[in-house]
Amino acid sequence: MATIAFLLNGTPQRLDVSSDMSILTLLREHLAHTGTKEGCASGDCGACTVAIGEPAAERQIFNSANACITPAHQLQGKHLVTVEGLGTEKHLHPAQEAMIECHGSQCGFCTPGIVMSLFTLHESLTQRPFPLTPELSQERSQERYQELSQTRLEATLGGNLCRCTGYRPIRDAALRMRDIPFERPHWYDATLSEVGGHPALSDTAVGTSFFAQPKTLAELTQLRLKAPQARLVAGGTDLWLESTQRLMPLEQLIDITRVAELLTIEEATLEEQTGWWVGAGVTYTRLEPLFEEHFPAFAHLLHRLGSQQIRNRGTLGGNIANASPIGDTPPVLLALGAHVELASANGTRCLALEVFFLDYKKTVLAADEVISRIFIPRAIEDTQLRVWKLSKRREDDISAVLGAFSYRVEQNVLRDVRIAFGGMAAIPKRAQGAEVALEGNTITQAAFRAAQKALDDDFHPMSDVRGSQHYRQQAAKNLLERLYLSLSASDHEVMLHAYAH
Ligand SMILES: Cc1cc2nc3c(=O)[nH]c(=O)nc-3n(C[C@H](O)[C@H](O)[C@H](O)COP(=O)(O)OP(=O)(O)OC[C@H]3O[C@@H](n4cnc5c(N)ncnc54)[C@H](O)[C@@H]3O)c2cc1C
Ligand code: FES
Ligand code: FES
User: Fold this and answer.
1) Between vectors from CA 67 to CA 238 and to CA 154, what angle results, nearest 5°?
2) Model-level pTM greater than 0.70?
C-alpha cells in the first residue's frame, strides 16, 4: 500500500492505494468519478484520458495520460484533472463547448477522453509556453496557436479512438476552441504545495506486498539489492499491461519516476565521442526538443511512437529494458552507436547497446541492476540518419518492421554505414552483412542488391500477427531499395511523406 496526497480537480486528497491500482480504478471505483471511461484498458483507445499537472516555472503543466495504465501511486504531489473538473453547466471549457458546436460527439463514449486531450492542447497552446521553453511569452504561444499544424492536431487526437463521429467534426472542434472565451475553472490556481512533493509513504518491508518510491540512484540500487524480485515501474506503458491484459499481480513495485539521476539530459563525452547522457526515466515528450534539433529523423519517429498520452509517460529506459524485438527506439540507437549505463549498489558499467540484448526479452541486466542512463553520440558531420517504421496504422501502432540507417556519403562512396532493424529477429539487431556490402562502396544498384541479398543471412524473421516471415524479409529489402532510390535521386524523398515516415 502507499499513502498518497494529490489534488483532484483542485481539491486536496489523501488516501491509501494499493501499489498496483490504476488511476482509472481509483477514480471510478473509489472516488465515484465515472466521467472517465474504460474502453480497452490497454492504452489504445484514449477513452480514459485524464490530465496530470505538475509544477513548472510559474504554473502547472498538464499532460494527457491513459488512466487505465497509469499507476495511482504516481499521483503523489500532482494534480489530477478529469472531465468532471473542466467546466460548470454555465461555463463549459472551450474544449467542451467546441465539441458541442461542431457536433463532435454521437454515442459519447469517447467524448470525455477526447475533451481531455483537447484540454491539454488548449492548455499547452494558450496557457503555457510552448514548447516548454520558459522564455516564450504568452504572446508568442498565442502565435503558435494560430499556426496549429496538422501534425500537432494529429498528435493531439492520435491516441483517441472514435467509432461513430468521424474525425472531421472533432478536428473542427480543436480548431474552434481558440475562438471561445476561456473562463478559468475554480481550481486553476490551486497550488501543489498543499499536497507536498515528498515520495508516497511506502510499504518497504519485503513481504508479499512491497512498494517504494526512491528519490536517488543510491536509494534505488539499495532497494534493488533488497528486493530484486520487485518490478521497476517507470511510465508503466508496457508493465501495466501485464496487470490489465494478463491479470498478473503487480504487488511488488519500485517506482523509479522520482529518481533524480534518471531524469536528466546532459551533454557529455564518452570514449572521445561527444553526445548526450539521457536518464533512463526521461519521457519521449521531454526528449522531443533534443531530437528535433539533433536527430530530426528520430524526432519524426517519435511522432509515430504510440500516442501523445503514451509519449507523455513512456521512457527511453523502459523501451530498452522491455527488450521487445519491435520496440521503436533500439534499432535507431543501435544505428547511432548508443551505449547504456547499468547501475547497481556496486557501481556502474557501460556497454554498447548491441551487447545489451541477448535473446527474446532477455538482456544482460542483472537482478540487482537498473538502466541508469543511455549515451547517444552526436552524429559526426555529414552523417545522415534515416528511420522508416512500417506498421498497419500510422498512429498508435507497433512496428512490423523498422529500419534505421546511419551513413556518410563521401564522393558518392558510403562510409560508416550502420544499419539496424526491429521486427526482423528475436532482438533489435544490426544488419552486419548488409553493412559490409555497402561500406566503402559507391552508391550503385549492384551494391544495394548485394546488401539486400545479405539480409537473407543477417535475419530469419518470424511470422506473427504483424507480418509473415516473407513480408518482413521483403519489407526490409524494400527499405534498402528505398535508401538506394533516395540516395541515387540526389537524396530526394521517394515516397509520399504522409505514409512514408
Ligand atoms: C498503446 C500503446 C502504444 C505503444 N506504442 C509503442 C510504439 O509505437 N513503439 C514502441 O516502441 N513502444 C510502444 N509502446 C510500448 C511502450 O510505450 C514503450 O516501450 C515505452 O518506452 C515503455 O516505457 P515505460 O517507461 O512506460 O516502461 P515501463 O512500462 O514502466 O517498464 C517497461 C519494462 O522495463 C522495466 N524498466 C523500466 N525502466 C527501467 C530501468 N530504468 N531499468 C531497468 N528496467 C526498467 C520495467 O520493469 C518493465 O519490465 C506502446 C505501448 C502502449 C500501451
Ligand atoms: S481504456 Fe482505452 S486507453 Fe485506457
Ligand atoms: S462518439 Fe461514439 S465512439 Fe466517439
Assistant:
1) 80
2) yes
